[in-house]
Amino acid sequence: MKTIDDVIARMDEIVTECAAKESRLGYFAILYRQVTIRVKEGILKGEFEDNPRMEKLDVIFAKRFIDAYEAYQNGAGLTVCWKISFDAAKNTKHIVLQHLLLGINAHINLDLGIAAVETVGEKNLLTIQNDFVIINNVLSELVDGVKNNIGAISPLFKLLIRFAKGRDEILVNFSIKLAREGAWKFANEYFSHDDRNSCIALRDQVIAGLAEGMVNPGTRLSRIIAIISLSEWRSVSNNMKRLDQVAKDAVS
């Protein structure tokens, strides 16, 4: 993949594959495809400091998800945080929001910092910071829009917020702003690290821990999620169609 159009084409294929297989991996794919489309529109409008570089970042960033997805399909090795996210897709008791946040967790908290460093190469990492923030704002805008309208997919979702309010639960309190700040800090550590493979491995362990917290929240919250999951559509492909519309509405 060399262009953002290549990325969108591959994301279209993944979405189609997931819908045909009734695979919950399609939930994050739906969301991320819309993020990529939004970034492409931003590039065409000249919204970034360096639009050609943003396309390069987008391709490198997206490829980390696509490579992880393909590795999982083929039984090949992949990062632990992505494996936890993909394994969770087999569980019918998780709600749509869990699947979305698991993907976002791995992609921002691990992949984004790596992609930023690979994009700048030997240049000063600070040169990409502003565009790094902008791409996170795009994702934040989309995720907030989806959460605000997720009732179209998950009618009882407000129960989760009501009963989990004030509790220290990563599933409820996940913040893209905080994730962005952590991702930028990691990018700086990765950029200057003598052993980048070990740097990734250590970061992966930390982010995998957050993923475990999303998959296995506290007992009380797990019971609430079980109730909410009963109200969501049983058909994954129907959920994907609804989520796709919600995501499109979030950026329109």
From TrEMBL:
Pfam families: DUF5995. It comes from the Bacteria. This is DUF5995 family protein.
